[in-house]
Design brief:
The protein contains three helices and no strands. The longest helix has 20 residues.
């Protein structure tokens, strides 16, 4: 999944990548499995060298920003 995040950042910029809540029907890799293992993904991003601020934006900041722009 980290490689997917890498590709999305290239395609969408750092402000366009966010985690969603579609874990009920998404096909996720076994190491993630469900929402309870998202911290493992976030740690993997940190371990790869993503800064803490960027990981926070991917985890929730970009999503909140999008909602604020959409709803007002």
């Amino acid at each position: 999944m980290v490689r997917h995040v890498d590709a999305l950042i290239v395609a969408l910029d750092e402000n366009g990548v966010m985690l969603g809540s579609d874990f009920d029907r998404a096909m996720l890799p076994a190491p993630i499995g469900d929402v309870t293992r998202v911290p493992k993904l976030l740690q993997a991003l940190l371990d790869k060298g993503y800064g803490e601020a960027l990981v926070t934006r991917i985890a929730m900041g970009n999503w909140l920003s999008m909602i604020e722009r959409s709803i007002g």
